[in-house]
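--- STAGE predict ---
source: upstream dedup step, 1 unique chain passed
mode: sequence only
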Amino acid sequence: MNSSRFISVQVGARRNYVVPAILAEAGLLEAFYTDLCGSAGLGGLLQKFCPKTLRKPAIQRLISRQVPVQLEGKVCTFDRAALRFLARSYLARSNDFKSYQALRQFDLEFSQAMSQAGLGKATHVYSMFGEGLAFLKFAKDRGLKIISEVYIAPQTHQIVQQQREQFPDLEPMIPSEIIERDYEWLEELCQLADRFIVPSEFVREGMMQFGVSSERCALVPYAVGDSWFTLQNQPIEKRILFVGTADLRKGIHILGIAAQKLRHLGYEFRVAGGVSDIVRQHPLTQHLTFLGRVPRTEIQNEYAQADIFVLPSQAEGSAEVIYEALAARVPIITTKAAGSVVRNGIEGFIVPEQDPETLASRIQELVEDRELRERMAIAARKRAYEHTWNRYSEELLKATLN
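--- STAGE serialize ---
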């Protein structure tokens, strides 16, 4: 019987709390430390006593953060630190540096609250990208092993900042002091953690740039839910789907330029995700159809009607929308930076980042060659079966207990 016991640290409901749920299912979870959720603390009280007629959007979003049943009795929320952070963030508003200061102050107060709550019988701490860094130091000093999941490439700041320099009318530059402080924080994490869980080779290569050896990084790709395998893809020919925030990091400008180049062919480019007015109205994006945020209950319809899926991302961890497209039986064109499990020429194409010409060429090739499109669609679903939740759970436990 394994004697390891984990404290899982996570801010927000990232990936529906899958990591603590897996640890709990395996009988390895000592406690789950989080900021706010709808199942305990303030969120639990609101769920029980706040009338539905008084539930404003912010309250409803909090209540919707329901933890999996496996975590019952293991959840500890730190409401005061979270509420102070929300207040500081509101006061900071559009001031980037004050917003960043609010985030770092929250991380410190969150850490202090977790330290007071204690370690129990834990032998390990599993943190999402070093959340609660001071708490991780506290645990490390007491002999616990520290595992950190790195869910986005550490060089993201550098990559996106370069794009902001080239396209200043799409996104403002981030103050260099914020980037410098972020990388100082990352260097502390790199020295502290015993092991990193990364979802893609792109992230592992990024960690190596910060002096982390390949051996300290366990590669555990993400997974896709079972419901996606029941989706019947009936493509509308020439319909290209993009799912994600329409910003520079996701390569919306690259997609926009490619769409301009293909405008004479009658292709429809559908963008499902948050979008600013600046991006929506920019000359580079006038051949894209912006759907805005599409509810999770409706997004599968977009995949079901997509001819191909395109994500020209500049920096990711491993984009979960690609796993969904694979399971939905949709061929994919993406980049190495998207951290995907797509293999070039099999389930779709891998194109260079920041290369709208090649992107446009591959889109046209895949749309016009129906035999190729069908072959890649079949391969896509087959590839998705290699990334089920059961497989992910097995690989994650193996990586954390190694």
